[in-house]
């Protein structure tokens, strides 16, 4: 599974300083990454991975990472799943990268 952000980025976004919930947060990072890749619907997005060299073409662009952080925050804050994690801000950030014709 592709990872679009690091655990450190996730903890910074959520303002978490301890390691108590690292396992839970790692799962949220995976879920947020999967949501973004699925939303983008492109082969390029499917190849993004933060574990590659930042100079590598498969390293996620900063705006994709920012969108992933927003989705992560939504998943973290809305644990009941009452809201769509792809909000207006995320859609706006990713509109130029998304391929709506792909299924």
Please characterize this protein's 3D structure.
By secondary structure, the protein is mainly α. The chain has one domain (7-94). The chain has five helices and no strands. The longest helix is centred in the first third of the chain and has 19 residues, at 22-40. The chain is globular, with a radius of gyration of 13 Å. The two termini are 19 Å apart. The mean pLDDT is 92.
Please indicate the percent range of residues in DSSP E strands (runs of 2 or more).
Answer: under 5%
Helix/strand order, N-terminal first: HHHHH
Radius of gyration: 13 Å
Structural class: mainly alpha
Number of strands: 0
Low-confidence stretches: none
Q: How many domains, as an integer?
A: 1
| pLDDT averaged residue by residue | 92
Q: Major beta sheet, specifics?
A: none
SS summary, helix count: 5
Q: Outline, from the CA principal axes? A: globular
> What is the rounded distance between the termini?
19 Å
Helix proportion of residues, in percent?
A: 40-55%
Give a brief description.
By secondary structure, the protein is mainly α. Helix content is 53%, strand content 0%. The model has no long low-confidence stretch (mean pLDDT 92).
């Amino acid at each position: 599974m592709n990872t679009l952000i690091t655990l450190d980025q996730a903890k910074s976004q959520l303002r978490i300083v301890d390691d108590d919930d690292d396992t839970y947060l790692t799962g949220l990072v995976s879920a947020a990454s999967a949501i973004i890749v699925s939303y983008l619907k492109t082969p390029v997005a499917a190849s993004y991975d933060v574990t590659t060299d930042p100079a590598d073409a498969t390293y996620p662009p900063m705006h994709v990472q920012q969108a992933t952080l927003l989705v992560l925050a939504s998943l973290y804050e809305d644990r009941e799943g009452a809201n769509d994690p792809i909000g207006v801000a995320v859609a706006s950030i990713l509109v130029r990268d998304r391929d709506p014709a792909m299924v």
